[in-house]
Amino acid sequence: MPVAGDVAGRGDVEASGVRDDVVAWFDAHARDLPWRAADRTPWGVLVSEVMLQQTPVVRVEPAWRAWLDRWPTPADLAAAPTGDVLRAWDRLGYPRRALRLQECARAVVERHGGVLPDDEDALLALPGVGPYTAAAVRAFAFGRRSVVLDTNVRRVLARVAAGEALPAPALTVAETARAAAWVPDDDASAARWAAASMELGALVCTARSPRCDACPVADRCRWLAAGRPADAHAHRRRAQAWAGTDRQARGRVMALLREALAPVPHAAVAAVWPDVAQLARCLDALVVDGLVVREDAAGDAPDPDAATYRLPH
DNA sequence: AAGTCGGGGAC
DNA sequence: GTCCCAGACTT
Question: Can A49 be counted among the known catalytic residues?
Fold first, then answer.
């Protein structure tokens, strides 16, 4: 039976009871992640959130420790050589995130005196910080109320509240409203709900093989009650290609340049990718992105084959 | 609203 | 091989 005031799509489940049980489960089962430690800093939390954008926790954890040990504050990262930043990013993927994180550090220094703001609009204005990351930093770094809606929370609510296997491919206004309706009113409870619902999605209510037998709210889950029906949006999901894509080519180039001790001649770059035209296109794009610097050989008519490539300084 | 952007581990 | 991962940004 819906509770009074259930006007924003919480569904038939009783939200506060579910929230309480998810939070209690979190208190007993939360992972001991370094960006949750008592000595964490707001900047450290932001770094973790950017690294976790599309990269799994197990790969982020060691990188985060090394990163914060080397550049503990926004001012430290702002002053670092960009090439060092890209090398430290290593194989976390999507290296443009590393560029944006350094731009973010520089913006924090210039706009906010080196102190990360807790205002949502100020956070959103920072490079690399979108709706999810701004909300997450507000909740996890500052303990403030925000609507933290990542892939885990989306999936948990899709199942518990809507009875669907997975959320729609694209976030809708209605889904955001539903998530907002689930967030408790006060700061501390809202922050705890955000962390707990994300953790439940990461550890129990997983995309592939959910462990409903270990779920603290299995008895109130609409999806489980319906017999775990298949994903209704499956026909709209398209597998991301990989082999032979520009992304793979870019990754090969970046891996080569990260390891290089000196500018790499064009012929050596060409050795890592067989498609000449595709490689040329990707190199141009990497230069435009600011991930790679091309230096033409001295002379009147620059010869593409005589150019060298390196990471930015 | 749809495309683009890495990389690796689980299945 | 396919799918998924604490998304953001561009067009």
Answer: yes
Q: Which of A14, A49, A175, A199 is catalytic?
A: A49
- Which residue, of A170, A196, A225, is where some domain finishes? A225
**Residue–nucleotide distance: A262 CA to C7 C1' (Å):** 33
Q: Is residue A5 a part of any domain in this protein?
A: no
Tell me, yes or no, whether A24 and A172 share the same domain: yes
Give me the pLDDT at residue A237, please.
72
Residue A25: HSE in the Cβ half-sphere, 13 Å Cα cutoff: 22
- Read off the CATH number of the domain in which A268 is found: 1.10.10.10
- What is the CA A298 to C1' C5 distance in angstroms? 45
| Cα end-to-end span (Å), chain A | 62
A187 and A217 together in one domain = yes
Positive or negative torsion for Cα A165, A170, A176, A177: negative
Cβ of A240 less than 7 A from strand B: yes
Q: Is the CB of A285 under 7 A from strand B?
A: yes
Instruction: Convert the pLDDT of each residue in A253-285 to its tens digit.
Output: 999 999 999 999 999 999 999 999 999 999 999
Spatial contact of A147 and A176, defined as CB atoms under 8 Å apart: yes
Q: What is the CATH number of the domain that holds A82?
A: 1.10.340.30
Q: Looking at the domain assignment, is residue A219 inside a domain?
A: yes
Nucleotides of C under 7 A from a protein CB: 1-9
A155-190 tens-digit pLDDT: 999 999 999 999 999 999 999 999 999 999 999 999
Distance from CA(A208) to C1'(B10), angstroms, rounded: 9
Chain centroid to Cα A23, Å, comes to: 23
Report chain A's mean pLDDT, rounded to a whole number: 94
Which pLDDT does position A194 carry in this prediction?
Answer: 98
In 3D space, the residue among A4, A10, A7 whose CA is nearest the CA of residue A163 turns out to be A10
pLDDT at A306: 87
